Amino acid sequence: MKRIEIIGSINQYNSGTGEFHGYVQQIDRGYMKAMFDFINKKQWKMILGKHYRKRTTGKDSQNHRINGFIQQICEDTGNDFDTLKYYFKRKAIRQGYPFKTDPEGEAVPVSEAILTTIEAAYLIDEIEQYAAENGIILYEGENGKT
């Protein structure tokens, strides 16, 4: 099944007819036409969910915190950065970190590049919990504040 993602808001629901009314925030006309052509010709399903912003990047961001904390744990434990990052992602799956399934049915965590702010928080929680359980003090920012 082909996946089409559109972000918008629903501002009305008619329980009598089961109709939703709302608006789409952004979509280009060609894409909209292709979507309706797709819907009219094939079976489809719609999934509604709350929209969360993508994880933050740059200075003092979730991305900076994730990578900085993992680097500090690597320095303290002697473990490899990529190995530890994958380990924390796998542990975060239990909280709701997104994953795909490999051919053997094993969960494979997705890249943090596509995470929402909530999903990035799951990863940060796992990293901080590991540090606390292992007596590792993590520092944030350039001034080395905890």
The number of helical segments is 4
Write down the overall mean pLDDT.
79
Shape: elongated
Q: Biggest sheet, strands in spatial order?
A: 1-2
- State the total count of DSSP E strands: 4
> In this structure, how is the largest beta sheet organized?
2 strands, antiparallel
Low-pLDDT residue intervals, each spanning 5 or more residues: none
Structural class of the helix and strand makeup?
Answer: alpha+beta
Beta-strand share of residues: 5-15%
What fraction, in percent, of the residue positions are helical? 25-40%
Along the chain, the helix and strand elements come as EEHHHEEH
Distance between the termini: 47 Å
| Radius of gyration over all CA atoms, rounded | 20 Å
What's the number of structural domains? Answer: 2
